[in-house]
Specification:
By secondary structure, this protein is mainly β. 9% of the residues lie in helices and 27% in strands. The chain contains 2 helices and 14 strands. The strands form 4 sheets. Strands 6, 7, 10, 11, 12, 13 and 14 form a 7-stranded antiparallel sheet that branches. The radius of gyration is 18 Å and the shape is elongated.
Length: 216
């Protein structure tokens, strides 16, 4: 494993970010998790925690045991927006109507009614799930690229739509989809979605763009 091998693998699978850990492990994504923290500012005199040589090229650094060296190719490579498969313990559930019991009429109610927030300057799958998880909710969802809603559970009356209908990019991270007008991209807490090593079971799956070709 070396930097170029990891970067190539990620871009070929429609991911703009590549991360190297412990010299031999490559991770991909289109956004950092909500709890991510930069360990060294560019130009800082502070020693970097990423100090493990790459197994395939000892002259390069590939993270450390508990740290990732992250590379960003989102501007250099044309990568279509994609559905984030999982954030922390919240796997993607699907695309749903934003209201239930009434199709937007006066008798309808919001799909995620517990709490909501407008995040026009910071909305992404990671920031929305992070907001809901921090506030103790099991369901998180983004609507129309601008707002994030939370709930204790997903209603049995929720109408699921085709994933391709949640095709509006997030306001901040346009490499990710954040629902659509009156349509919510939903993530639901599932403790079993992460393996014994703390890794999402969705790792390794190819990240396919679901937007219709005519809209790319």
């Amino acid at each position: 494993m070396d930097i170029s091998t990891c970067q190539s693998y990620c871009t070929e699978n429609n991911y703009g970010l590549s991360g190297l850990q412990n010299g031999d492990t490559c991770f991909c994504g289109n956004g950092l998790q909500s709890f991510s923290a930069l360990q060294k500012e560019t130009g800082s005199s502070q020693d970097s925690k990423c100090d493990t040589p790459c197994k395939g090229n000892s002259t390069e650094i590939c993270g450390a045991k508990e740290y990732l060296s992250v590379w960003n190719a989102t501007e250099a490579v044309k990568i279509p927006p994609t559905m984030v498969k999982q954030v922390e313990y919240y796997p993607l559930k699907g695309c749903y109507n934003s209201t239930i019991n009434g199709n937007g009429t006066k008798t309808s109610s919001p799909l995620l009614a517990a709490t909501s927030t407008a995040l026009p300057t910071s909305l992404s799958a990671e920031s929305c799930v992070g907001f809901c998880a921090t506030n103790g909710y099991a369901v998180a969802g983004m609507e129309n690229g601008l707002s994030c809603g939370c709930s204790d559970k997903l209603s049995a009356s929720a109408k699921e739509l085709d994933l391709s209908e949640c095709n509006v990019p997030c306001a901040v991270n346009k490499r990710e989809f954040c629902g659509a007008l009156k349509k919510v991209l939903v993530y639901v807490l599932d403790a079993d979605s992460v393996d014994s090593e703390g890794k999402p079971k969705s790792l390794g799956q190819k990240n396919e763009a679901t937007i219709k070709p005519a809209l790319v």
